[in-house]
Amino acid sequence: MFKSMLKPLLKPVLAATVAALALPGAHAVAAEAYPVKPVRIIVPFTPGGAADIMTRALGERLRLRLGQPVVIENKPGAGTVIASDFVARQAPDGYTLLMAASSLGIAPSIYKTVNYDPVKDFTPITQVASVVHVLVVNAALPVHSVKDLVGYLKSQGKPTSYGSAGTGTSTHLEGELFKTMAGVNMTHIPYKGSSPALTDLVGGQVQVMFDAYASSSPFIKSGNIRALSVTTARRSATLPDLPTVAESGLPGYEAMPWLGLVAPAGTPPEVVQRIYTATQAVLKEPALIEQFKSLGLDIIGNSPSQFAAFIKQDTVKWAKVAKASGAQAD
């Protein structure tokens, strides 16, 4: 009898609760509590590399800002496709994020099977940093600028070899973009990572390479290879004295490998804003800025909307380069 008397009283309360949750501010209230459990950041590379070290440094500081553990989980393989596909299928609640790389937009153009759309299946949060890439040559090559290199390549009777960290990587496509824009003939030699490619560059088996400054810097400092330029449109804060490819002989050339936080599509805007605000604060910390420089990274920290526009633009750009070069990965 008590239950039957209670039911009519509960109905208005339940109805009011449902109505309250439907109000515009309800999501904001829910987001204020975010996060209430650990947050995962998936890194699409093996432990120990610049991207992994960067993400762990970022995660430790985000832990303090968000008040919850930030767990870093590595899921390498298939040119970052494995990690990207995994995150795209997670719940859009802000508890699983991806430290995406340039290959997020490159992979669909070079892999036969990619189960995600780089634009539709992710919610951009912020482009954390650009990875400083340099155009380097074997020290014995008689060139000291991009202009010299283009002239040298055009004077050769046979193609000069250039190495990369693998077919379809940004280091490969940067070389293809250079070939097209400069009108030169180079033969691509793919390796399984930067390390073996750099070894052969030092040994003279290949003569040219585009590579991350973080991995090539020991060889540059030792004099075994020579850095001609950075690939970005503007000079790098990490290497302010090194000219860009564009200003030193190939106007219009630009390639900016990047790393940035994205969430599964449909993540609430309030949650995205919470993560973005916390990340912005972290990226202004002097100690982190210095650590990023040591890793060959230039901080960006743009807004979610700016990052979304950049991903669209970058995906289209490298799709054209991949198509023109015929680059395909197994």
Automatic annotation (TrEMBL):
Transmembrane segments: none annotated. Keywords: Signal. It comes from the Bacteria. InterPro entries: BUG, Bug_dom1. Residues 1-30 form the signal peptide. Belongs to the UPF0065 (bug) family. PANTHER family: BLR1237 PROTEIN (PTHR42928:SF5), TRICARBOXYLATE-BINDING PROTEIN (PTHR42928). This is ABC transporter substrate-binding protein. It comes from Cupriavidus necator (Alcaligenes eutrophus).
